[in-house]
Design goal:
The complex is a heterotrimer of chains A (about 270), B (about 290) and C (about 350).
Chain A: H1 2-35, H2 54-59, H3 63-96, H4 102-114, H5 117-130, H6 137-160, H7 166-173, H8 178-207, H9 210-215, H10 222-231, H11 236-255, H12 258-263
Helix pairs in contact in A: 1-11, 3-6, 3-8, 3-10, 4-6, 6-8, 7-8
Chain B: H1 5-11, H2 15-40, E1 44-45, E2 51-52, H3 58-63, H4 66-99, H5 105-113, H6 120-131, H7 136-143, H8 157-181, H9 185-193, H10 198-227, H11 229-236, H12 243-251, H13 257-280, H14 286-289
Helix pairs in contact in B: 4-8, 4-10, 6-11, 8-10, 8-11, 9-10, 10-13, 11-12, 12-13
Chain C: H1 2-31, E1 35-41, H2 47-57, E2 60-66, H3 69-78, E3 86-87, H4 91-99, E4 103-104, E5 134-146, E6 169-171, H5 175-185, H6 195-208, E7 212-215, H7 220-226, E8 231-235, H8 236-245, E9 249-252, E10 259-268, H9 274-285, H10 287-296, H11 304-310, H12 312-315, H13 324-329, E11 331-332, H14 338-352
Parallel strand pairs in C: 1-2, 1-3, 6-7, 6-8, 10-11
Antiparallel strand pairs in C: 3-10, 4-10, 5-8, 5-9, 5-10
Helix pairs in contact in C: 5-6, 6-14, 7-8, 10-11
The chains are: A mainly alpha (about 270), B mainly alpha (about 290), C alpha/beta (about 350).
Chain lengths: ~270, ~290, ~350
Amino acid sequence: MKRKKREKARARGGVLFCVLVYLFLFLPILVIVVNSFNATTSKPYLSWKGFTFSWYAELFTNTDLLGAFGNTLILAGVSTLLSTMIGTLGAVGMYRYKFRGKGLIDAVLYIPVVIPEIVVGISLLTMFSRINIPRGMITLILSHVSFCIPFVIFNIRARLSGYDSSVEEASMDLGANRIRTFMEITLPILAPGIAGGALLAFTLSIDDVIISYFVNGQTMTYPLKVMESIRSGVAPDVNALSTLILIGTVLLVVLTQSDLIIKHRHY
Amino acid sequence: MKHSGHEWKSNTLPAFVTVAPVAVCMLFLVIVPLIYVVIMSFCSIDEYYNVVFRFTLKNYAMLADAQYTHIYLQSLLIAFLTTVFCILIAYPFSFLIARTKSRKKNIYYMMVIIPFWTNSLIRIYGWRTFLGTNGWLNNALRFLHLTDAPVNFLFNRGTTVLGMVYCLMPFMILPLYTSIEKLDQNLLEASADLGARRGATFLHVILPLTSGGIFSGSIMVFIPCLGYFFVSDILGGGNSDVIGNLIERQFQSGNNWPFGAALSIILIVITLLLVKCYQKIGGSMDALGV
Amino acid sequence: MKKKLICMVMTMMLTASMLAGCGASSKTASGSAGQLNVFVWTEYVPDSVFKKFESETGIKVNVSTYSSNEDMLAKVKSEAAGTYDIVQPSDYMVKSMIAQNMLEKLDQTKLTNLGNIGSQYLNASYDPGNVYSVPYQGGVAAIAVNTSVVKKEITGYADLFDPSLKNSLVVLDDYRAVIGMTERSMGLSMNETDKTKLAKVSDQLMKLKDNVKLYDSDSPKSALISGDCSAGFAWSAEIALAMEENPDIKIVYPKEGAYLFMDNWCITKGAKNYDAAMQFINFMLDSESAQMVSKEFPYLCPNTKAVAAMGSDYTDNPAKNPPADVIASGEYLEDLDSDTLSIYNDMWNKLKQ
C-alpha cells in the first residue's frame, strides 16, 4: 500500500517535471505569439497596449521582411537540393568503393559537424574575400551546401548499413543500364534516408544565422533580418511572421504524420 | 551482399562520378578555407588594419594576453555550466518521455523539436522580454507581492548560461532519448529481480548503457557554446562574452583578421582535443551527425 | 507515409523555387531604373525616406546597417570594392577614409540642395571644401537619467562613475565614444595620446565596469524605456525618443564639455551606382527629407531650411536641438595613430572582459 503510494507520488513528480521542461521550452514562443498581437506602435514594442491583428496585415506590406524570408526559402531550397544530390551520390560512392583518400574525405566530413559555426563562417569569409567573390546569394548557397552535405551523408549512411546490393545486380542482369538502375532501384531504397537528410539540411539552412552573418554581403535572410530587428527592438510584425511560420511547420508535421519523422531522428 | 569492388566498378555508376562532387565541395569549402585561416593567423596588419602577407607570431603572442585569457576561462566556465545544466534537465526528461508507455510518446517527442523550428534569435529575445525589469516575470512577482523592487535578472553570466542551455537543449535531449530508448527492458527487470535497488540499477546498469548518449550530447552542447556569440550579445549585454564574441569583434569592428584567425585556431584546438577525448572513451562519431 | 514526407520536402523546394522566380522577376522589373546600395547606422535613417526616394526616382534602394564607424570600415574593406555605394561615416572616420583612399569625390554640380545646409556645418576640418562628404545629422553623446529611479543629481560624465549607479547603466558599445567620455570626465581631451595619461584613463575606465549593465549602440533607448537601465551614456536623439516615452527620463549635457559628432554622406571608391548615389545625396539634402528624418530620429539637424520649417517642437527641445553653448564647449573625435588606437583597444577589451 505504502509502496503504491510512493510510486504514484513519483509518477506525479515525473509528470510535473516534464511539464516544467516543456514550459521552459515553450515560454519564449508564448512571448513571441503574445507580442505579435500587441497593439503598441512605439519602440521597443514592449509595453502591452491592447490586442490587435493589425501586425499580421502590416506584415504583408513589409517588403523587406518578406523579401528576406523569400531569400531564406530560396537559399534553403537550393542548398537542400544541391547538398542532397551531392550527398546522395557521395554516400553511395563511399559505401560502395574503396579508393585512396576515402579516409580523408570521411574525416573531413566531420569538420563542419563538430567545429563551432563561427569558425566555419570566418574561414569561408576569409577565403571568399581573398579570391574576391562578392558576398551574396552565391556565397550563401556555397556555404550552406558545405555544412549540409555531411548531415545528408550521415543520414543516408545510416540507411545504407543494412543495404543489400544484390537487387541492383539483378536489375543490371535484367538489362537495365546503370543510370536506370540507380534511378529505379537504388534511389527508392534509399529514399527515406535521403528525405531525412534533406529535411535536416533544410532545417539547418533555414535557421542558420552565424555562418550566414559572415558571408551574406547585402543579401538579407530571415534570421539575419531578425538579428537586425533585435538591435532596435523586435517589431511585432517580425513576431507575427514567426508565429505564422510556427503554425505552418506544426501543420506540416501533423499532416505528414509525426511518427515517421521520429523514426529517422532528425532535428 | 559482399561483392568485389572490381565487379561493381564496371557495372554501376563509377566511383569518380559519385565521389568527385563531395570531394570537390569538401576540398574547396572546408579544407581550403581552414588552411587559409591558419595562414591568416600568421599574417600581419598594416597601420590601417589591412591584412599584409608578412610572417609574424605576434597574433599568437597576443593570445596569451590577460585580457583575453580571462574570456577563454569565462567561455569554458559558461560552456561547462551549460553542459551540466543540460544533462541535469535533459536526462530525467528524456528518460521519462523515452520510457513512457503512453501512445502519445511521439507527440511528446515532437514537442521537444517544434520550438526549434522558430528562429533561435527571436526566441532568445523572447527570454529578454520575459526577464526584463518590467518583463513578465517581474510583473508576476510584483503582482504576487513577492518582491517590492524589480529583480535584476538580465545581462549577466547567469542569463547567458540560461540562453545557452535553452538553445542547445535539443542537442542533449535527442542523443539521450535515443540511447535510453534502446535500453533493454529485460535487463532492467533482471537487475530488479536480482535484488538491486533502484539506485543500484541506475548506477550499474542504466548509466553505463546510456553514457554514450551523455557523451555525444555533451560534445554537441559544449563546443557550440564557445562560439554562440549572439546569445551572450542578447542576454549577456556584453558583460559575459565567449570566445565567439572575441572572434566576431575581430572580423567586424576590430577589423584585425589575423588575430581573429588566431583566436579561431584556439577554438579548433579545443574542438580537436574534446573530440579526441570523446573517441578515446568510445564515443561514436556518427552519433554527432544525426 | 514515406512518400508523404518526400512530397513535403518537394513541396517546400517547389515553393522556394517559385518564390525564387518571383524574386528574380521583380528584380528585373525595378532593375531598369537602377539600384543603390546604402550602408547606414542602425536607427538613423527612416524607411519612409528610402521609400519616398524609390517612388520618386524608381531606383531600388538596398539598405544595410552598422553599429559603429569601425564596423562600417571593417565591412567596407572586407567586401569587394563598390559593394556599397553610400556610407555614412562620422567626422574623424571621413578623414581616415579619405587618407585610405576609400572615398570617391562628390560631383559638386549635382549638389543643388547644398544651400540648405547651414554654413557653420560646411567646410569642416575633416573635409575642407566638402570634397568627399556632406553633413547628414549630428549630435551629442549625452547622459540620460531616469529621475524616478536615480536620486543622485547628475551633472557630468564623472557622475556616471559613481558607485551608487552600480549595474544600472546602458552605455554605447563604441570604444572611441566610451573612452572619449572617460577622458572628458577627467578633464582630458577625447584624443589624448600621452601614454602616462592614458594609463590613468584606463584606471578610471575600469571604475565604469561595475556600473555598466548593458552595452548597446543600436538602440540604447530600448533599455531606458523598458526600465532595464536607469541611466546611460547615449546618442542625444535616442535620449529624446526615450523622453517622449517616459517623462521621468531627462537628458543631461555634461558640464565637462560634451562628445560631439557629425555624420556625413559619402560615396565609396569604385561605387557601382555613382549617379544614383549623387541623386540620393542631393535628395537627402532636401528640406522635406530632412524634416522626415528629424521626425523619426531627432538629431541635430544641419539643414537650416528644414529647421526653420520644423518650428518650436524641434528648436525648443534641448534633447533634439542641443543648445549652442553645449556645441561650443564640446569636442569632436580625431583620427588617431594606430599605436594609440591599439592602447585604446586594449583598454576597451579590459573593460569588456
